[in-house]
UniProtKB/TrEMBL annotation:
Cofactor(s) this protein requires: Zn(2+)
Pfam families named among the record's database cross-references: ERAP1_C, Peptidase_M1, Peptidase_M1_N
Cofactor info, note text: Binds 1 zinc ion per subunit.
Residues reported to bind Zn(2+): H450, H454, E473
Residue ranges, annotated region (Disordered): 80-116
Main location: membrane
Topology relative to the membrane: Lipid-anchor; GPI-anchor; Single-pass type II membrane protein
Domain Aminopeptidase N-like N-terminal, first and last residues per copy: 150-342
Protein name from the UniProt record: Aminopeptidase N
Top-level taxon of origin: Eukaryota
Keywords: Cell membrane, Disulfide bond, Glycoprotein, GPI-anchor, Hydrolase, Lipoprotein, Membrane, Metal-binding, Metalloprotease, Protease, Signal, Signal-anchor, Transmembrane, Transmembrane helix, Zinc
Length: 1036
C-alpha cells in the first residue's frame, strides 16, 4: 500500500509527517458492522414475521434465502455488542452520546503486544523494548487460523446491488488440502451472513455425493472465525471442497467490498463498488483463509448490470447473460496463486485508456470516472515503462497478461497493489498539468512506481506473516525511486530520497516510543498500526544502505535469486538475507565470516539508530570513532539504550583528496564495539566527512575542530562537498543541537554559507530544520527576533527566484521557488503577501480563467490570500472547491481554506468537515483539521474541537484517528499542554487503544519540546541578540 500522504507533502513546510498509511476499523473484533447489523436485524425480524419478506426490495433475486437458518442468532449479536464497547456506540448511532465510563466496561480481550511481550518470540531475542507504564497491556489470544488445512482454489461469485440496497449475494467454493486430519474447517468471516443450509463439504472425486455432515456451525466473533464442525474427520492428504451461499453488504467504511460515490458531468449521483482488503478485510467480502501465507488460485464471477463494467485481477474470459433482465456475469480467468489480501474487484461505469508495454507482454489500462479520464494520461504514459524496467531490474517477467490501474473517488490509503488491478485515490493517479503542481506529478509517478514494485515484492513473493510487512513496504518505498529515476531521469530523485525518507524517519526514530521495523504482531489492530512511517521510510532507508554496502550488482543478483526461489510463495526476512549473503560471498563484497543477517538484524530487530562520534587526534591522522543510540532526549530509560549497538558500515573521505562516490563500507564497526580507531586520515588542516551520500542510516558528530573545518569549507567552496552530504551536515548539526550534543552556535554557523547554495535538497533540509525553531518560538517573546533572522535567510532566496513561476524550469528549481515563496509569505514578508492577494483578486474577478495562477504557486497564493482576506475570499475558494473536477486542486483548496484568520470561519469549517454530506469526503476531513491545526490562529481551536467533539469524530470514522491528535498537538511545548494531553488520553483510554503507540509518541514529543524550551530557548534568543536580531524593547 502507499501512504495517504497528501500531494503537497513533498514540499510541506509544517514538518508534520503523515505517518499512518491506513488504519483499520477498531471494531475488528466484531464481525458485524452497524450497517450489516441493521440488515441482520431486518433479516431476523423478517424471519419471525413474514418469511417471504422482500429484503432485497430493489434487487432482482432468484435464490431463495432461508432466513431461519441464519447462522447468527440475535443473542450472539447482542453478546458481541456488549463485549465490545465500540459496537455499543456504533449500534447506538441514532442515540445521544454514551459517556466514556459507560463505554469502557466489558471485557477487553486483546492480544499480546510486541511492546510487552518480547521474550516469547524466537525472532527477536535482541530487542530491547521498553515497557513503558503508559502502554496498555493486552491479554493474549491466538487469532491465527489452525494449520490443518491449506486452501488451493477459490471460486467466488458475487452479485452486488449497487443501485439497490447495497446488499451482495455471494457464493464461494474453496478447495483445500488436508495437512493434518481434522474435524473442523475454520475460515475467516466478517460482516457476512452465511446461509447455513447451503453449506456443504464434499470430497474431491465425490463432489456430487452426499457430502460430509456438518454437526455444528460455530462463530467466534472475536477472532472473526466461522467453524464448521464435521461428524467425521477430514483425511490427511485428501482434498475437499467447502461451498456456501452468503449475504454481504457494500459498506461505506472504505474496506472490504465497499461503495464509493461521485457526481457525473451532468451532476447525477453515481455509485461504484470497489475492494480494499489489505490487511485483514478480504473476509468482509467472502469467507476465506485470510492470512498472507495461505495462497490459492482464484476464479471470480462478478454480476453487473449491462450499463456498468467490471474488472478484477485477471482478464474476463466470458460474459454470460443472467436470467434477470439487464444483468450479466463477468467470468474471470483463474489467477496465479496469490494471497487473499491481493484479490480485488471493481464494478463501475468508469472509462479507460488502453496501451501495452513496449515488449507487448502486458496490456495496460488506466480507469477513471469519465470526466477525469484525460487526467490519467500521465499514469498511462509512465506505468508501462516502469513495469518493464522492473521486469529487467528484478530479472523476472511480470506474470499476468494485463495490468489495470483505477482512480477511486473514495479511498482510504494512497493506493493498493492488488495483483493486476491497482486501486488509487484520485490524487495518487490523476494529474492535470494545467491545474496540478509539479509535486503532484511526482506524487503520481511515485505511487505508480511503488505499487508496480509490489507486483514483485509483496505479490509474487509475499511475507509469511505481517511481521515482515516492512520488507514489502520498505522495498516498494525504495524501489519506487528507481522506477521514477527511470522515467524522469532529470528529477534527481535519488537526492530527494534523503530529504523525503531518511531525514523524515530519522526524526520519528529518535524517540523512545519508536519501534523496531520487524515486530511480532497478531491482532488486526496491531497489524494496522504497523503501516506507519517507520515500516515504510526506515525500511526503505536501510534497504538503500544495504544496496550501497553490497554494491549494485550484488544487491540485484541476490534479489533476483530470492524472487526466483520464492515466487508464488512466502518468505521471511531471513530468506532474503540468505540470498543476499550468497551473492555477497560469491562477489566478494562481504567477508566470508560476515552475513547480511548479522548486519541487518541489528537494524531491523531493534529500534532507533546510532550517532557516530568522530574525534580526531591532535595531528588529525587518526580518529576514535564511537557509536551510541541517538535520542533527542536521554531520559530515565537511557541506560537500557546504552545496550543498543549496530553493525555500522563506515564510509568516509577527507578534504585533501575527497571522493564521495565510494559508498561501500571502508570499515565495519561491529555491534560489539563501542569505540574503534581509524588510521590514515588527512592531517589536521583537512576535514573528514563520514557517511558518504548519507547512505548509512546514522548521524555523525565530530570534534569542534572538524566542525569548524567543515563550516570553513562550506563558506569557501561548498561544491567540494557532495550535495547530499551538504544536506546531511545541516540535518545532523541541527538535530545534534536539538539533542544537546552540539552547540547551537555551531549548528547555526553551518547556515552561514546558504547564501551561496543553489541546490534544492540542502536548502529544503535547512528550511525544514528551521521549522522546528519557528514552531517552538511561535508563541514566545523571542519570535520577532527569530522571524527577522529567518527573513534574512529567505528573502534573498525569494528575491532571486521571484514570484513568476516557470513550469519549464528544472523540477527542483520549481520546488525551490515554491518553498521560498511559501516561507516568505508564512513569515509575512509584505511583497509576498501583496503578490498573493493581488493575484488571487485577479482570479476572483476572472473566475473562469484557470491559468491566472501557476499550478506550482497555487498553494501559497490560495493560503495567504485567504489568510489576509475575509469571508468573500473564503467563500470563493469553497465554491471553487465544490466545482473542481481535479482531486489535487480540491485538496489544495481544502488546505488553503484552513489559512483564514477568522475564528468563526475556522470553527464553521471544522464543524462541516466532520458532518456527513457536507461536500467534503470522509477521507479528506483530516486535511481540513490538519490545515486548521497548522494555522497559528486555528491551533487552539483544533485542540479544543478535538476534545469537545471526540465522540462525534470517533463516530464519524468509527475509530480513533491518530493523525488528528498528532496535528493538533504538534507544537505543544508547555507543561500545561502536557497535562491536557495526558488527561485527554485518560478520558479516552478505551477509544485510543488501537493507536496507543502514536499517542505515546505524541506525549513523548511534547516532553521533548518542553525540555528543549527549558534548555535551548534562551540560548537561541542570546544567539539572535549577539547576531543583531534582537527585538528587545528599550526601557528608557
Ligand atoms: Zn506499499
Amino acid at each position: 500500500m502507499t501512504a495517504s500522504r497528501g500531494v503537497g507533502d513533498l514540499l510541506a513546510m509544517e514538518g508534520s509527517h503523515p505517518d499512518h498509511v491506513i488504519t483499520f476499523d477498531k471494531s475488528k473484533g466484531c464481525y458485524v458492522s452497524r450497517s450489516v447489523g441493521v440488515l441482520l436485524g431486518v433479516f431476523f425480524v423478517s424471519a419471525l414475521v413474514v418469511t417471504g419478506l422482500l429484503v432485497f426490495y430493489y434487487a432482482p433475486q432468484k435464490r431463495d434465502l432461508h432466513h431461519e437458518s441464519l447462522l447468527l442468532s440475535s443473542t450472539q449479536v447482542t453478546q458481541s455488542t456488549e463485549r465490545k464497547p465500540i459496537m455499543g456506540r456504533r449500534r447506538s448511532s441514532n442515540s445521544t452520546k454514551i459517556p466514556a465510563s459507560a463505554r469502557s466496561n466489558g471485557t477487553n480481550k486483546r492480544l499480546a503486544g510486541s511492546r510487552t511481550k518480547v521474550t516469547s518470540t524466537t525472532r527477536a531475542p535482541t530487542i530491547l523494548l521498553n515497557t513503558t507504564t503508559e502502554a496498555p497491556l493486552h491479554e493474549e489470544m491466538n487469532v491465527r487460523l489452525p494449520r490443518a488445512l491449506k486452501p488451493l482454489h477459490y471460486l467466488v461469485k458475487l452479485q452486488p446491488f449497487i443501485s439497490g440496497n447495497f446488499s451482495i449475494l455471494g457464493y464461494v467454493e474453496v478447495e483445500m488440502e488436508v495437512l493434518e486430519p481434522t474435524f473442523n474447517i475454520t475460515l475467516h468471516i466478517a460482516d457476512i451472513i452465511t446461509k447455513n443450509e447451503t453449506i456443504r463439504v464434499a470430497a474431491v472425486g465425490d463432489l456430487e455425493g452426499l457430502g460430509l455432515k456438518v454437526r455444528k456451525h460455530e462463530y467466534d466473533p472475536e477472532r472473526q472465525f466461522y467453524v464448521a464442525h464435521l461428524e467425521e474427520a477430514l483425511q490427511q492428504s485428501h482434498k475437499y471442497v467447502l461451498s456456501m451461499e452468503f449475504l454481504g453488504y457494500l459498506n461505506d467504511q472504505l474496506h472490504g467490498f465497499y461503495r464509493s460515490n461521485y457526481r457525473d458531468a451532468d451532476g447525477t449521483e453515481k455509485t461504484l463498488a470497489v475492494t480494499q482488503f489489505q490487511a485483514t478485510d478480504a473476509r468482509r467480502a467472502f469467507p476465506c483463509f485470510d492470512e498472507p501465507s495461505l495462497k490459492a488460485t482464484f476464479e471470480v464471477y462478478l454480476a453487473r448490470t449491462t450499463n456498468m463494467s467490471s474488472i478484477s485481477n485477471m482478464p474476463i474470459i466470458e460474459t454470460i447473460p443472467m436470467e434477470e433482465e439487464g444483468w450479466v456475469w463477468d467470468h474471470y480467468d483463474t489467477s496465479v496463486p496469490m494471497s487473499t489480501y491481493l484479490v480485488a474487484f471493481v464494478v463501475s461505469d468508469f472509462a479507460s485508456l488502453t496501451t501495452t508495454t513496449a515488449n507487448n507482454h502486458t496490456v495496460f489500462r488506466v480507469w477513471a470516472r469519465e470526466p477525469a479520464l484525460q487526467q490519467a494520461e500521465y499514469s498511462r504514459l509512465v506505468g508501462p515503462p516502469i513495469l518493464t524496467h522492473f521486469e529487467d531490474y528484478f530479472n523476472q517477467s511480470y506474470p499476468l497478461p494485463k495490468q489495470d490501474m483505477i482512480a477511486i473517488p473514495d479511498f482510504s490509503a494512497g493506493a493498493m497493489e492488488n495483483w493486476g488491478l491497482i486501486t488509487y485515490r484520485e490524487t495518487a493517479m490523476l494529474y492535470d498539468p494545467r491545474v496540478s503542481a509539479a509535486s503532484n506529478k511526482q506524487y503520481v509517478v511515485a505511487v505508480v512506481a511503488h505499487e508496480l514494485a509490489h507486483q514483485w515484492f509483496g505479490n509474487l513473493v509475499t511475507p509469511r506473516w505481517w511481521t515482515d510487512l516492512w520488507l514489502n513496504e520498505g522495498f516498494a518505498s525504495y524501489v519506487e525511486y528507481i522506477g521514477i529515476n527511470h522515467v524522469e531521469p532529470t528529477w534527481q530523485v535519488m537526492e530527494q530520497f534523503v530529504l523525503n525518507e531518511v531525514q523524515v524517519v530519522f526524526s520519528l526514530d529518535s524517540l523512545e516510543s519508536s519501534h523496531p521495523i520487524s515486530i511480532p504482531v497478531v491482532h488486526p489492530d496491531e497489524i494496522s498500526e504497523l503501516f506507519d512511517r517507520i515500516s515504510y521510510a526506515k525500511g526503505a532507508s536501510i534497504i538503500r544502505m544495504m544496496n550501497h554496502f553490497l554494491t549494485e550488482d550484488t544487491f540485484r543478483k541476490g534479489l533476483s535469486t530470492y524472487l526466483d526461489a520464492f515466487k508464488y510463495g512466502n518468505a521471511e526476512q531471513d530468506d532474503l538475507w540468505e540470498h543476499l549473503t550468497q551473492a555477497a560471498h560469491q562477489d566478494g563484497t562481504l567477508p566470508l565470516d560476515l552475513t547480511v543477517k548479522t548486519i541487518m538484524d541489528t537494524w531491523t530487530l531493534q529500534m532507533g539508530y546510532p550517532v557516530i562520534t568522530v574525534e580526531r587526534s591532535p595531528d588529525g591522522t587518526s580518529a576514535s570513532v564511537s557509536q551510541e543510540r541517538f535520542l533527542l532526549v536521554k531520559e530515565g530509560d537511557f541506560k537500557s539504550s546504552e545496550e543498543y549497538k549496530w553493525w555500522v558500515p563506515l564510509t568516509y573521505t577527507g578534504g585533501d583528496d575527497s571522493n564521495f562516490n565510494e559508498t561501500r563500507a571502508k570499515v565495519w564497526m561491529k555491534d560489539t564495539e563501542t569505540l574503534i580507531t581509524i588510521q590514515s586520515l588527512p592531517t589536521k588542516d583537512h576535514w573528514v566527512i563520514f557517511n558518504l551520500q548519507e547512505t548509512g542510516y546514522y548521524r555523525v558528530n565530530y570534534d569542534n575542530h572538524n566542525w569548524n573545518l567543515l563550516i570553513q569549507q562550506l563558506l569557501t567552496d561548498h561544491t567540494v562537498i557532495a550535495t547530499i552530504n551538504r544536506a546531511q551536515i545541516i540535518d545532523d548539526a541541527m538535530n545534534l543541537a536539538r539533542a544537546d550534543q552540539v552547540a547551537y552556535d555551531t549548528a547555526l554557523e553551518v547556515y552561514n554559507y546558504l547564501g551561496q547554495e543553489t541546490e534544492y535538497v540542502p536548502w529544503a533540509t535547512a528550511i525544514n530544520n528551521l521549522a522546528y525553531l519557528k514552531d517552538m518560538f511561535s508563541r514566545t517573546g523571542g519570535y520577532g527576533a527569530l522571524k527577522n533572522y529567518l527573513l534574512d535567510i529567505l528573502v534573498p532566496l525569494y528575491n532571486m527566484l521571484g514570484f513568476i513561476d516557470s513550469q519549464s524550469d528544472p523540477l527542483l528549481d520549481q520546488y525551490k521557488r515554491q518553498k521560498a515563496l511559501t516561507w516568505a509569505c508564512e513569515l509575512e514578508h509584505q511583497d509576498c503577501l501583496q503578490n498573493a492577494a493581488a493575484i488571487y483578486a485577479h482570479w476572483m474577478n476572472n473566475p473562469d480563467n484557470s491559468s491566472i495562477i501557476s499550478p506550482n504557486l497555487k498553494s501559497t497564493v490560495y493560503c495567504h490570500a485567504i489568510s489576509v482576506g475575509g469571508e468573500k475570499e473564503w467563500n470563493f475558494a469553497w465554491n471553487k472547491y465544490l466545482k473542481s473536477n481535479v482531486g489535487s486542486e480540491k485538496i489544495r483548496l481544502l488546505s488553503a481554506m484552513g489559512c483564514t484568520k477568522q475564528v468563526w470561519i475556522l470553527s464553521r469549517y471544522l464543524e462541516i468537515a466532520f458532518s456527513p454530506d457536507s461536500g467534503i469526503r470522509k477521507q479528506d476531513a483530516f486535511r481540513v483539521f490538519g490545515a486548521v491545526a497548522a494555522n497559528e490562529v486555528g491551533r487552539p481551536l483544533a485542540w479544543t474541537f478535538l476534545q469537545d467533539q471526540w465522540d462525534t469524530i470517533f463516530e464519524f470514522y468509527g475509530k480513533a484517528k491518530s493523525r488528528l491528535i498528532k496535528s493538533a498537538t504538534s507544537s505543544f511545548n508547555s507543561v500545561q499542554q502536557l497535562k491536557e494531553l495526558r488527561l485527554f488520553r485518560r478520558e479516552h483510554l478505551q477509544d485510543l487503544e488501537s493507536v496507543s503507540r502514536s499517542v505515546q509518541q505524541v506525549i513523548e514529543r511534547t516532553k521533548i519540546n518542553i525540555a528543549w524550551m527549558t534548555s535551548n530557548y534562551q540560548v537561541i534568543v542570546n544567539w539572535l541578540h549577539k547576531n543583531g536580531y534582537s527585538t528587545k524593547l528599550s526601557n528608557a
